[in-house]
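Give me structure tokens for this 295-residue protein.
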Amino acid sequence: MVVLNTLEQLTKQLKKVRDQNYNIGFIPTMGALHPGHISLIHAAQQQQDITVCSIFVNPTQFNDLNDLLKYPRTIEADCKLLEEAGCDIVFIPEVSEIYSPEELLLKKNSLEDKSWAEGKTIDFGLLADVMEGAHRPGHFNGVAQVVSKLLKIVRPNKAYFGQKDFQQLAIIRSLVKQLNLPIQIIACPTIREPSGLAMSSRNERLSHKERTSAALLSEILFELKDLYLQKTIPELKLFVANKIMTDPMIELEYFEISDAETLQKITHFGLTKSAVACFAIKLGGIRLIDNIVLY
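Here you go.
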């Protein structure tokens, strides 16, 4: 496994790869890796010749500076996991390798700045106005900014993302289409802990008691999968609200049942080809999201 820290190093290494006509699979991460991330590495290995993973805590997608500062950074442990998984190239840049001071200043002054699109108009429309977009203004602009940069740097054949971040996945697919990037976005299943809790880097900040409470989230989602044919959407929302109220440690930020393609709320089943149920909760000051495709 090769660990690289600069764009110059990565560009030289990838040129060698391309000179041999190898296909590249890419997994962008913010580190604090867990088996969910490693499942993406394995998926890329099955389909591609070379697997590249980036570790970069992207400052432009955080609305809360404290959240950025508290985000776990475990580079040594991450590299060990990646080496054991057989990853070929790991890219761990400093912020200055990805952003100019001007770009960071623009982000600070305007959550809606899209100068990173290099003259192209990027409009995620209604995809970015609901759920995470509504509760975290500017978040998806920051995500799209760094993902577009990394995809243009690595130029992979395929890039791999987990379905736990369902809305982010939709945003990235839209980004690739609008920028006309010749990259296939591969969605991989959410990996869960034995309790059902979706694996997340943020889980490491949960206490034992909080982790037990967090398992209620997946329990509710699995029940929804069984109940949606029997109940209306208002009935399901009431069911969820009542379940959440059984644990005073959990604060519900949102729960939506939406069209799986447009992410817009639906009022009853049958209006869409596929529906997804999405959650966001706060637990002990830690924000967790999860989802399940109902059909």
